Amino acid sequence: ERADVPLEITGVSKRYAGSADRYAVRDLSFRVEKGQVLGLLGPNGAGKTTTLRMLMGLIAPDDGEIRVFGQAVRPGAPVLSRVGAFVEGAGFLPHLTGRANLELYWRATGRPAEDAHFEEALEIAGLGSALERAVRTYSQGMRQRLAIAQAMLGLPDLLILDEPTNGLDPPQIREMREVMIRYAADGRTVIVSSHLLAEVEQTCTHLVVMDSGRLVQAGPVVEITGTGGSVLVGHEGE
Ligand code: ATP
């Protein structure tokens, strides 16, 4: 039954080399259940990106354990096909269409074309006819949407989005919200980081609030926002 739990983090700590005794993440434990949209919330430097990088297996924790669908995550181990991740700065070939870029990416994963669930993933991402245009004509928001569509290829059971609303304007942020809600509608699980409660409270079912590497609050959104928890989250821009 552990294989059904998208994410279980137990006592995880991380210090970067050279940062003396300052922890980027300190004794972090939480669990994400199937179908949840979990918002990882906290001001700049709270440890969100470090946490997400550890659960993607990009960096190793110093202590503790991370399990994704029951499997221990370790850097160097093959990325689970059940996980898709968006991190800022995905590169695209500007002269190719959005669709051609995604096809190229999928082929590079070495997985069969029919496993991509291309049309369904693209529909959820909501790129529409823009997919047939060259990426060089895209706005920043559109490029971000394309990178998220790329993370959705194969319709992974767990989708990880690191600050997907960064640099987007309010209408684009609303569209992003719709994309995440559509994605989770079929019982899939989403983990999204943000430093603004307002950006995620209408999207997420659950929140984990971090500050200075530690978990400050965790639980269903209604419990956290209903108790004035929003004051814990900084409102500084990026
Ligand atoms: P942001 O919203 O700015 O991305 P965050 O919540 O994602 O913030 P992290 O990027 O995880 O926070 O950073 C947590 C702490 O670790 C910060 O104090 C940061 O300066 C430090 N840190 C992050 N990356 C490194 C690194 N590669 N080397 C050294 N220290 C780092």
TrEMBL record:
Q: Where is the ABC transporter domain?
A: 7-237
Family, according to the entry, reads as follows: Belongs to the ABC transporter superfamily.
Q: What is this protein called?
A: Alpha/beta fold hydrolase
Species of origin? Streptomyces coffeae
Q: What's the source species' lineage?
A: Bacteria, Bacillati, Actinomycetota, Actinomycetes, Kitasatosporales
